[in-house]
Design brief:
Layout lengths: L1 H10 L9 H13 L8 E2 L1 H8 L3 H13 L3 E4 L3 E4 L4 H20 L9 H15 L3 H17 L4 H18 L5 H20 L3 H26 L5
Antiparallel strand pairs: 1-3, 2-3
Helix pairs in contact: 1-3, 2-4, 2-8, 5-8, 5-10, 6-7, 6-9, 7-8, 7-9, 9-10
């Protein structure tokens, strides 16, 4: 927890003088999406509030917002915890991803597309793979899909998917071999990017649909074994 709190202290500057529960929830959501708080982690009001320099009431409101987004859960007389997902949660996350991400690619219109940030996410993944940092590769993979969604230029869609991608990170925590999960998709991210660079959104959508189906099967297989105790 000390490492996580140190990271939060670095985020304190983001709050500025206009600290709000929404900004606190944005910071905590980002930290969850980046893997700082694993599922089941108890979030201490005193420690996190002190690291961010916010009041107890502000922090509680931020917790409430993230509970509404299904990232946290409040347990009576025990406190607030990062949520542990069920297999059904994981399936629903991927169902949402397929509906939104494929629709974004399908609706891109005529090329060229603004792919700078998508390209940066692929590069981020390549750097992580060279460093054998598989947690960072998982984060880069989430960044790739976040930037893919951002191609729609829709604030509402971006907001919806921010919490979905944070939930996805909670699922990734359960995977016992992050390299086996994330490394194959680095090449597939690059392939989708190349299709979009060529203006071929139809092939990109087809690749993305298969990609999400394969990823769901892999994550659910591991999840059933680790969370549900299936043989």
């Amino acid at each position: 927890m000390a490492e996580q709190l140190a990271g939060l202290a670095d985020d304190r500057a983001l709050l500025g003088r206009t600290s709000t529960a929404e900004r606190v929830s944005d910071i905590l959501r980002s930290r969850i999406a980046e893997g700082y708080f694993p599922p089941g982690t108890r979030l201490s009001e005193d420690s996190i509030g002190g690291a961010l320099g916010v009041s107890r009431n502000t922090l509680r409101e931020a917790f409430r917002l993230l509970t509404h987004e299904r990232l946290l859960v409040h347990e009576l007389n025990r406190g607030v915890f990062v949520r542990v997902l069920t297999v059904e949660d994981v399936e629903d996350i991927y169902r949402t991803r397929a509906l939104v991400e494929c629709a974004v690619v399908r609706g891109l219109g005529e090329p060229p597309y603004a792919l700078r940030e998508l390209t940066a996410a692929v590069t981020e993944g390549q750097v992580a793979a060279v460093a054998n940092d598989w947690k960072a590769l998982g984060t880069a993979n989430i960044h790739f899909h976040r930037e893919l969604v951002a191609l729609a230029r829709s604030e509402r869609t971006d907001e919806l998917m921010r919490s979905v991608f944070a939930e996805l990170r909670l699922a990734f925590h359960v995977v016992d071999d992050p390299r086996a999960l994330h490394e194959p998709y680095l090449a597939r991210n690059r392939e989708i990017l190349q299709c979009l660079e060529a203006g071929d959104r139809r092939t990109a959508e087809r690749l993305l649909e298969t990609y999400l189906t394969d990823s769901l099967e892999r994550v659910v297989e591991v999840y059933r074994r680790r969370v549900d105790g299936a043989p």
